[in-house]
DNA sequence: CATAATCTTTACGTTGACGTCAATGTAAAG
DNA sequence: CTTTACATTGACGTCAACGTAAAGATTATG
């Protein structure tokens, strides 16, 4: 194992190229409190942790969550408090989020099913059409 | 079986209450060409088909698609042309859509997995905390 | 050293998806 | 027939999520 991995930092360009988002978007996410890269003087230095958070942000976006919702989800990923009551509350949020995701998964599966059936029907039609044409 | 089912129509209020969207939204969707209810004079009359389309629209929204994307998806649901070439093209779109949905499903499953692991960890922490407290 | 390439902040512009308000129409109830 | 309730079409407002352009600071390169 090399030592290089955990302490690597990324420039704003590197990250924006890697994930195909604009630098503007990254600064915007920072503005909204979703990421907080360090600074070397003026310029931003993104850590591996920042990079991971960005991945979560983008996944959230692909799933149709707003930046505010994503912010709340990110909060679930950042361990902070240690009171039992707080931990129970956090646990409840986790579970709520899981329920949300499961409902979404059902939507997706219904959509996939619909589309797959449409495929079958269409393939069938095409075959019939071809059979007709060859007579 | 009763005869009442297929020919029922819905007012804009009925639909908006049933699906918990505003009348404004329904008119907006119409403006964008997503639904086309008939008119009795001025007022809109939504058919069972319109209702079904609305369900698809809302599902699309829950999955994070834009109205434009939803419009394209709705097009896939409305059979229209009969040329073999067109049907092949449509089939390709179906398949593309399925791929999109499958990628989304993978995102969701990853998210669910993350959250579930977080749950386990949290439950563990809470148990340890309680064990400590009882000594 | 000059200049080009990147970075920064500030600020205004844009697009999507509606909300809200005004002015008006119409249909059922009392 | 008047009131009450819900319908319609504009037109403008709003919020999120960036895009874009301006102007300056810093770093890299010939």
TrEMBL record, chains A, B:
Source taxon at top rank: Bacteria
Residue ranges crossing the lipid bilayer per the database entry: none
Coiled-coil annotated spans: 84-118
Pfam family, one: MerR_1
Database matches in InterPro entries: DNA-bd_dom_put_sf, MerR-type_HTH_dom, MerR_fam
Keywords: Coiled coil, DNA-binding
Domain HTH merR-type: 9-76
Gene Ontology MF annotations: DNA binding; DNA-binding transcription factor activity
CDD domains: HTH_GnyR
PANTHER family in the cross-refs: HTH-TYPE TRANSCRIPTIONAL REGULATOR YFMP (PTHR30204:SF58), REDOX-CYCLING DRUG-SENSING TRANSCRIPTIONAL ACTIVATOR SOXR (PTHR30204)
Name the record gives this protein: Transcriptional regulator
Provenance organism: Asticcacaulis benevestitus DSM 16100 = ATCC BAA-896
């Amino acid at each position: 194992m090399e030592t290089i991995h955990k302490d690597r930092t990324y420039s704003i360009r590197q990250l924006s190229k890697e994930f195909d988002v604009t630098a503007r978007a990254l600064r915007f996410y920072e503005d909204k409190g979703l990421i907080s890269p360090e600074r070397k003087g003026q310029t931003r230095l993104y850590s591996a942790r920042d990079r991971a958070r960005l991945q979560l942000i983008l996944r959230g976006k692909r799933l149709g969550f707003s930046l505010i919702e994503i912010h709340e989800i990110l909060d679930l990923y950042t361990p902070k408090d240690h009171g039992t009551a707080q931990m129970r509350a956090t646990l409840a949020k986790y579970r709520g989020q899981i329920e949300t995701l499961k409902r979404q998964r059902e939507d997706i599966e219904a959509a996939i099913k619909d589309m797959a059936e449409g495929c079958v029907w269409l393939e069938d039609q095409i075959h019939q059409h071809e059979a007709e044409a060859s007579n």
